[in-house]
Design a protein that fits this description.
With 294 residues, the protein is of the alpha+beta class. It contains 9 helices and 12 strands.
Length: 294
């Protein structure tokens, strides 16, 4: 049987090794022979949860208010009805999705030479919903603005340059209308454009189809030189992780202004100028208002 070597201090070499191991564990920030303590979950009442929710909402979001001025016209892009959507398909030579094409070449050529009326594209109406003037009107959904932010961020290459920014914008950035604090919460999803469109714009579109070149007439409602404000809410944790840097966000907004919003952007419609961009306090951000009770 192996004998333990006794040191001059009267301790065995095994004990010394144990002491060294303990010192090593302490040096690494751990404590020897100490088990991890389990988290204690304390039940909370409504008032206690209210305090936690208020703290989270106070600290969770950074809110940026953006005000823009449409330079000239912004066109609507929503088909007025399903019939209009069908006409748009036919005008683009895709009626084979609805009905058969003419079998003879002459018939296809004759159909191709006709200018087809696609129908009207209009702005959103919300029956029963009143705007700032106390009357019904036309509206622009805020999800279109978020789609524009995502598109322009991608166009500039930032979704690939900044790893994780694509998901950050998709899941951690939200766009809301800058409505008064006492407005119903659903109003944050709609931006008021006015009581009525300024007029209708008619343009001729030339496209290629299975039956040859097709000429179609496009009609769009439009608004002129409107100024709108909207709030961009971004989760602070994403900003702290540098997923959406301020410099890149500003660059995206500048590009967005030239890219435009609404329909027929490739024809120069919907371009806008940035009037102001500023951080706003929680009290100015309608959808984060908390009830005083609790």
């Amino acid at each position: 049987m192996a004998r333990k070597k006794v040191t001059p201090e009267g301790t065995s070499s095994d004990a010394g090794a144990g002491a060294d191991a303990a010192e090593g564990a302490a040096a690494k920030g751990g404590e020897p022979d100490k088990k991890k303590q389990r988290a204690v979950i304390q039940p909370k009442n409504a008032m206690q949860w209210g305090v936690l929710l208020k703290k989270a909402k106070d600290e969770h979001w950074r809110t940026i208010r953006v005000t823009i001025q449409i330079r000239e016209w912004m066109l609507a892009g929503k088909p007025a009805s399903l019939d209009v959507a069908e006409k748009m398909l036919k005008a683009r030579g895709l009626e084979d999705q609805i009905e058969a094409l003419p079998e003879d070449a002459a018939g296809r050529a004759e159909a191709a030479e006709e200018a087809v009326l696609e129908g009207l594209c209009e702005f959103f109406r919300r029956p029963g919903k009143l705007g700032p003037t106390g009357k019904e009107g036309i509206w622009f959904p805020t999800n279109h603005l978020k789609a524009g932010i995502k598109e322009n961020w991608s166009v500039l290459g930032y979704r690939n340059e900044i790893r994780g920014s694509r998901g950050a914008i998709a899941e951690g950035l939200f766009v809301y209308a800058a409505v008064p604090p006492d407005a119903p919460s659903e109003e944050r999803d709609w931006i008021w454009l006015g009581e009525a469109p300024k007029g209708q714009h008619t343009a001729i579109a030339h496209t290629m189809s299975p039956k040859g070149p097709v000429h179609s007439l496009k009609r769009h409602e439009y608004v002129e030189k409107v100024r709108i404000s909207f709030d961009v809410a971004i989760a602070r944790v994403l900003l702290e992780a540098d997923k959406i840097p301020d410099e890149k966000f500003a660059d995206m907004l500048v590009h967005y202004g030239e890219h435009g919003m609404g329909a027929c952007r490739s024809q120069g419609f919907g371009k806008f100028d940035l009037v102001s961009v500023e951080d706003v306090a929680l009290a100015d951000y309608p959808h984060q208002q908390l009830a005083a009770a609790g």
